[in-house]
Amino acid sequence: MRNRFLSPTIKAALGAAAAATVIAIFMAPTSAQAPAAASLKTPWGEPDLQGIWTDETATPLQRSPKYANQEFFTPGQRTELDQQRAAMLGRDKRVERGTELDVAGAYNAQFASVKRTGARTSMIVDPANGRVPPMTPEAQKVAAADRQFRLALLQATETCKNKSVACNGGKYDPKPSPRLAELAPRYNTARMNRFDGPEDGALPDRCLTAGLPELGGVSFRRIVQTPNGISMFYDVGQGQGWQRNIVMNASPHLPADIRQWYGDSRGHWEGNTLVIDVTNFSPKTDVQGSRENLHLVERWTRTGPNSLEYAVTMEDPTVWTRSWTVKQEFTKQSEQQNRIYYEPRCNEGNYGLPGLMHGLRTQEADFAHGKGPHPATKDIATDFVGVEDDPLQ
Amino acid sequence: MSGRSLPSMIMVAIAAAAVGAVIATSITPTSGQAPAPAARVARVGGKPNFSGIWQANNEANWNLQAHGALPAAVTQQGIYPYDYARVPAAPVLALGAAGAVPGSLGVVQGDGQIPYKPEALATKRENADHWIDRDPELKCYLPGIPRAMYMPFPFQITQSTNKIHMAYEFSNTARTVHLDKVEGPPDDTWMGHSVGHWDGDTLVVDVTNFNDRTWFDRAGNYHSDALHLTERFTMISPDVIRYDVTIEDPKVYTRPWRIVMPLYRRAEPNIQLLEFRCNEFVEEFMYGSLRKQQLVKHWEGDTMTVDITRKVPPGDAFYQWYGR
Q1: Looking at the complex, does the CB of residue B74 fall below 8 Å from at least one CB of chain A?
Q2: What's the pTM?
């Protein structure tokens, strides 16, 4: 089960591949002309957060052990990392031709975005070690049960036979696991090596990319303000996006029995900072193991004509032993180029989801007639040669 | 712009304003303390402020044109061979009166007709006959404009000086009306590319770059990728917008035509858009045939045939009486 922050673009690859090309074109880094400082307030006097914003640099969510005691990269380290990572751009890394892993790597580095290395060694600024805090013992048990289930489904594949990292903690057994007949231990949000129905798919494969906090590699958000009102539209690539209409009237959160994919966002101004409190998440979302009890406090602050600081504190005492905070720096994008994609039309062109299920049903029928291998001996869950090679991770 | 419905629009507006006032005083939020609504700002950048949560309150999503009430969205011939004697059919039969279609005087201006070319009219009729198979709404596809404006869901306008954002509850979609200069989209779109300007206090929005995959309603009214809309938004009271759209599409219609309707402010003090992320809701409808173990037992190939089960609730006195 992959870290959902690692690369939503890659995770969702089977969903609507064509959209990736569009996003890649959009990603050419150009910043807007610097407006006059006076424009940092709206005409009606509120702090002005409006525009299209994106993180133009790449920063890993968690700090690599290589930089354990270092919050910021040195300029030399950034240059060196940029050189190493630029080399990833044209790479078409192949493993042994014709193997499952080679075919799974059909989405090569061309489908990934490589941005300049950011200033920080991790997006996480609290705790000081730049790592997600330890899970509670109860949450560890839940995560372990989930992991064991996924490994069982993978056990008869080449991935485990070859001791690939994707099979870490599991072991190879040529006989498909009887657990293939079981429900996942909790509502599934990630790829598993089975596709009995839509619910076996990862959320992005179902065009249900989860929402907040959005810290992904390639994402834009447009903010439009009106007196006492703020709307945001997120474009996260792969034809997926969503809207947030921040409730700004100091009213309490939605009743606890209303649960939403994007939670319930209620904001207020603290000086120049927009503070948004987000609760009421759906149990079908998953942020590092946190689901319906996730509580976010976001802080949006315009720091300059072309810059906006985003900080989000995440807490869920049922999952983490303490809260943690992520920071990102967004850069304003050209309004005229309008480089945001408003149409979350993943669902309208999702050939991947029915294709996966249809393929599996065909393989099952073939196997039943003695014509092919047991479908569970094929790995449809783990993917992508070389993703782990990014020296930032 | 003096459509035949203008006087009635004003009547509606007055009635709605009166109703709105009553609602404002009689509805309090059902949960928590009452929020203190901030004073509404009447103008932004010198222009009428359309910001707020709005909803059409009409039957246009069923059919833009005038129509009488129907027993169901899907009907079959009854015992008489007449169109007016049709009866509800599967799959909506089990919904009883909840599956019926309310009548409407229609929103198409002039003679109330949509000026289809002959071959396009045939396509429209086929669409209507195959509503369940063809209507993009049922698949939770992006509704397009103008349909998003009058679906039975609220939408929110956030009006700034250079952009006016419209967020729709249905399918979590949105559009931005650009009042400043922008490049168009690189491809055709479901929701169109909206460029606005002010004509006095009326917001005029030019919408282009459509694909040919959205419909106008559940009656099969449709357009091609040559669709061009000119929308006019005029505030006719603090809580009512007159929404007037001229529809042009030389591939499908013989001339431009217009629809006009009021959009009403949702006056509940605690109103907010909730999620209606329907692509999850339609997974069974779209992909159920591909399950290893089907939930609906009557998939034959990719055709779903649904048996209607309707049970009399145990203890229902009426049924017990006549069943004796």
Answers
A1: no
A2: 0.87
